[in-house]
Protein 1
Amino acid sequence: MSLWEASLSWLRGLLFKQEMELSLMGLQNAGKTALINAVDNVGYSEDLDPTIGFHMREVTKRNVIFKLWDGSGQSGFRSFWEGFCRDNPAIVYVVDAADLDNLFISKKELHKLLSKTSLNGIPLLVLGNKMDEPGALSKDAFTEEMGLQLLSDREVCCFMISCKNYTNIDQVDFAVRTLTILTSETWSLHHDNILSDK
Ligand SMILES: Nc1nc2c(ncn2[C@@H]2O[C@H](COP(=O)(O)OP(=O)(O)OP(=O)(O)O)[C@@H](O)[C@H]2O)c(=O)[nH]1
Ligand SMILES: [Mg+2]
């Protein structure tokens, strides 16, 4: 996208409500449902039921209506991840950064997902969750363990977050907006001007 197109898209973003569909992927227990709850300000819960299948949640943040697919991380559902990410402007991958036993599987599943040609070039946001836990990795160690430094074929952004303490949850919204400016032709405009929302 040229600089002119990027500026135009930024301006459009200021003036119009936009709709963005995103899918949250990652192993079971990573905190995907907890993240959607945090972004939606519904509060934190210790006992969330595992997600079975895929559920859509709509969350409006300023001028963007996010349609968030909350996917199951269980092994039987992982083959469906590609289909859910395919037409998204960004891939959001959530990892339990304190669960060192499952980090390798999470890395393997992420790299397997990214190897799909249908997902070529789609920007990636990796979120290391549960940084409130004493055993959680630092960002540097997490980046290394997840092999993120090996990814050179797309924009990659990584944050350490805690859905429990709401740490860096605002950064998620910001990162998604920044990453997707690069692919903003995939955004669909809603024709109600936000200036008239007041
Ligand atoms: N300590 C801590 N626990 C968290 C955090 N986020 C989520 N959890 C807990 O981790 C567990 C799993 O969270 P979920 O959001 O259900 O995980 P999920 O990724 O949606 O899992 P599936 O639906 O099975 O794929 C729950 O008990 C949450 O309370 C966090 O930031 N810190
Ligand atoms: Mg869930």
Protein 2
Amino acid sequence: MSDEVRPRRTAVVIPAAGRGVRLGPGAPKALRALSGTPMLVHAVRAMAASRAVSLVVVVAPADGVAEVKHLLDDHALPERTDYLVVAGGDTRQESVHLGLKALPDGITTVLVHDAARPLVPVDTVDSVIEAVRDGAVAVVPALPVADTVKEVEPAGTPGDPEQVVATPVRARLRAVQTPQGFDHDTLVNAHATIALAGEGATDDAGMVERLGAPVVVVPGHEEAFKVTRPLDLVLAEAVLARRRANDGF
Ligand SMILES: Nc1ccn([C@@H]2O[C@H](COP(=O)(O)OP(=O)(O)OP(=O)(O)O)[C@@H](O)[C@H]2O)c(=O)n1
Ligand SMILES: C[C@](O)(CO)[C@H](O)COP(=O)(O)O
């Protein structure tokens, strides 16, 4: 079937099965509240805000699938958006793979979005989708980095200092966010290839790069930051407070 007549269905896989160790003790990170609403619900709403998204697959902690289903049943989403909840794995990569396996036939564009990036604006989501629909097989939203970044040699003996081995040219570096967008078949192929090779990757575009396929960059957004450490919760609450103030609540 040619691209002209192939229906363009866009789905999002949201890996949400992490524990959130760096955030400190408590519930799994995706279930912790931001302004009274679980982080995962913010993330699902951020994806459903795009009119192009017809399906959201949430990859939940293996022992939390029923809880996450109830949570999403209890929080309104636009009628045009369906959702599924599946159990995740031991790593982010494995969780995304399990989410991809749950996609129905007919999906042509897939976004992968961290539950831990609950505040990404819809314009960023739409620009990723648009770039895929315009023909890119892989798209990442990204921002320039503010710090100088050093490459280090890990310490040989615990307690020894790390040694700096290189300083990459900062102007060429980008901090990559999610949602990352993909042609469906390209992403599925990348996950299968990397898993077969027994390799790991910290993001999905990195797997597509290893296939030799081009990855395109679109502008990211400061509010798409990843909630990783306790201070990020403070920032997320501040962003939500500013949005409420701007909306006149
Ligand atoms: N086994 C895993 C590990 C991570 N994730 C998801 O991948 C996203 C990005 O991961 P990260 O921010 O590192 O979350 P955690 O792994 O939960 O954090 P930490 O490393 O601090 O435990 C999160 O939405 C997280 O839920 C997942 O679905 N399955
Ligand atoms: C996918 C990602 O958010 C891109 O910046 C990031 O690599 C996830 O990393 P983590 O190790 O799961 O925090």
